[in-house]
Amino acid sequence: MELRILKYFLMVAKEENITKAAKSLYITQPTLSRQLAQLEEELGVKLFTRSNHKILLTEDGKFLQRRAREILYLTEKTKKELSYDNEIVAGEISIGCGEFLGMNELSKLLSEFQEKYPNVKFDIYSGTAEDIIYRIEHGFLDMGLVFDYINKEKYKFIRLKNGDFWLEKTINWLQINLFIQKK
């Protein structure tokens, strides 16, 4: 399965029409149809239901759509992380945070950090503690601010004054430390 084919698949899912998707991708409609058929054959499932003028995702197609987005997101994130200059503190840190109180606390912390390291960008995700932990586990977030009990053996954490936890998956924290400690 190639990344290019996943991009084709996502465009067809978005457009719900092979001809429109092919035009958006600057390829021919027969080429796109053939690529989709090969993808279905490779996966052994039907990804689309077809009607006269519309193409819709099956349940397997919806599952692949979620996974394809995740795969492409992680691919781009990895490319960015590998391209950072070793002499400059730069990069992108993905942070998950609970809504309301967590966002206020996070904005204060990030403002201070941004002053010290202006080349570091933040990607902020808001969700429940369970969702944030899931996203850390699967590599979509580097760290999180949660208002819930965490498994202290599984993660590195810092207890803040008001009892909140910064939660990071260990391997991601090591990666982030490498970027932050450069001078």
Automatic annotation (TrEMBL):
The keyword DNA-binding applies. InterPro entries: HTH-type_LysR_regulators (IPR050950), LysR_HTH_N (IPR000847), LysR_subst-bd (IPR005119), WH-like_DNA-bd_sf (IPR036388), WH_DNA-bd_sf (IPR036390). The keyword Glycoprotein does not apply. Residues 1-58 form the HTH lysR-type domain. Keywords: DNA-binding, Transcription, Transcription regulation. GO terms for molecular function: DNA binding; DNA-binding transcription factor activity. One of its GO terms (cellular component) is cytosol. PANTHER family: HTH-TYPE TRANSCRIPTIONAL REGULATOR YBHD, NITROGEN ASSIMILATION TRANSCRIPTIONAL ACTIVATOR-RELATED. Belongs to the LysR transcriptional regulatory family. This is LysR family transcriptional regulator. It comes from Leptotrichia trevisanii. The lineage of its organism: Bacteria, Fusobacteriati, Fusobacteriota, Fusobacteriia, Fusobacteriales.
